[in-house]
Amino acid sequence: MDKPLARTARLLDLIPFILSHQGIAIADLANEFGVTEKEILADLNLIFMCGLPQYTALELIDLSFEHGFVTVREPQNLDKPRKLNGEELSILIMGLDVLRTQITDPVKEQLAKDLQIRLRQLVESATANAILYADDRHLPYIETINKARQNRTALNISYLNTSKDEITTRRILPLEVFQQGDEFLLLTWCFLSRANRTFAIARILSCDPISVTLPDSISDTNPVLLPGNAIVTIKFKYDRAALSFIENIQDRIVAIDQVSMIASVEVWDSEWILRNVLANAGHIKILAPVEFAHEVASRAKIALSNY
Fold first, then answer.
1. Which CATH code fits 232-305?
2. Tell me: the pLDDT tens digits for 123-141?
3. CA dist 153 to 90, 123, 141, Å?
């Protein structure tokens, strides 16, 4: 393998290896990877300058090796499998095309070709599940949804929940259609959940209007996010342990101060943000609105009472 490629492969392998061998001596690490201590030190210095987008001290990989022993304190998600999106997979495929023109070893050339085939299969799979529309033929129920929104009438839908691999039937009041990335989403008031819910329109399997017109106000509404207020801004304080959450919601953040670690995020689904705050228990503190902070505290007390 060419030296630049060998070093890239080594850099990708170093963090997972060190995480499973915390405190390993630099000499042992160099021996494990078959390089000199000088090369390992150069790799560690390079890794020390890598991290997540924003690339401030908060997002860089926290690596210690000053005293001859290597420890990773904050791997910045590099200890977890990386899931590539369609664009990233396509870039890898094109990159392999370039590499194959420079590879002279037929065995390595075949390995690159096999990897391309596998990546193309992943792209096809991702494309099948992606929501990328050119016209309303890909949104067969959009006209029904828009009509229900205008007339304030409810809909009966069957919906494919891919995370649970199940189909559910729900009665909803459609509130807003919006696009997030390549997805078209529908914000609703869900009568089954008695809360706001967001559905990917492409996963709606059937959609039938209900002739009854709903009143202006709905009983048993969610006190945190009412149907009349489709978007709510949540202001919160976070710590380093919640940085992966911040990275995952970049497209929703409307304001962030990385020094004070205070951010504001726009949400359409109160349950979504509630679950994420509770999942990051102790690392996210809601500052506003006050009602939302009370709701989080209430949910946390209920959860603790079950233990």
1. 3.30.70
2. 666 544 443 333 444 577 8
3. 43, 39, 15
